[in-house]
Amino acid sequence: MAVTSNLPSCPLCKRTIPAEDFNVSTDLAYCRSCNQAHSLIALMENARLDALLEEPVPGTWKHQNMQGDVVLGASHRSLKMAAGLLAVALFWNGIVSVFVAIATASTLKLSGITLPDSFPEFKNEGGPMGWGFTIFLWCFLTPFIAVGTWMIISFLMSLAGKTVVTIGSGKGKIFTGVGPFGRTKRFNPADVKSISVRAKFVADSDGGGHQDEKIYIELHNGEELTFGGSLPKKRKYQLAARLREATGLGAS
Q1: Which residues of 7-45 are buried (b: 16+ CB within 10 A; e: fewer)?
Q2: Phi/psi zone of residue 43: left (φ > 0), alpha (ψ -120 to 50 degrees), beta?
């Protein structure tokens, strides 16, 4: 294993650990000041993230809000990804919408609501659809509708999505979404044990799989918060590096 110029620092005393105190075979880095051993791989990854702070990445930002909290952000914007998702979403939802219109028309008609002649109508064995077949159709369409909805959300995220991490006194918040719409995770910055970017293998339904790379926040109680999976790689690593700095885990 080659040792880079960015030698890792002890997470306790922040002093640089010299290369002679590495044991590559056992994945250990020994800090003589603290008399503590740490994972060499984890410390090298931390050093690599800390070095990224010297290289600003477009599409990321850092500032303070009116309350004095540190606000870190990264954009999910990728026009190439958005164009691809839009094409697939239009094709998929265009087909699914025909069957949704048929199911909707049958549901309204069975409920006694008169429909315009322009509404599509499907006849089962020569007669109108009954409740049984209509319910079956809705159940059959549900996963296809879910996939279509996911495609639309992914398109919006690749067009105007963002991940914003807010660090304040005793409070931390991770927001992922578009504009004010999205999901939020909360944590206490004082409880953060480590911050890293890791890839995990995710199995696909066809027997294959892919590497899913996310930012991991590990808390002292063993809980892990994950986010940023759909961020472009450089922005993801820059956000993780700035988050380490904001929580006091980065090299001083």
Answers
A1: bbbbbeeeeebeeeebeeeebebbbeeeeeebebeebbb
A2: alpha
Closest CA to 174 of 188, 182, 166: 166
- Amino acid, res. 1: M
What pTM does this model have? 0.77
Indicate whether 4 pLDDT > 80.
Answer: no
Residue 109 lies in a domain: yes
Q: What is the Cα–Cα distance from 196 to 215, expressed in whole angstroms?
A: 6
Report pLDDT for 123: 61
Q: Mean pLDDT over residues 172-180, rounded?
A: 96
Evaluate whether residue 229 is within a structural domain: no
State which residues form the domain around 118: 79-158
CA distance 161 to 183: 12
Q: Quick check: helix, strand or coil at residue 132? A: helix
Local structure of residue 122 (DSSP, 8 states): -
The answer to whether 9 and 29 have CB atoms below 8 angstroms apart is no
Residue 71 bridge partners (DSSP): 63, 166
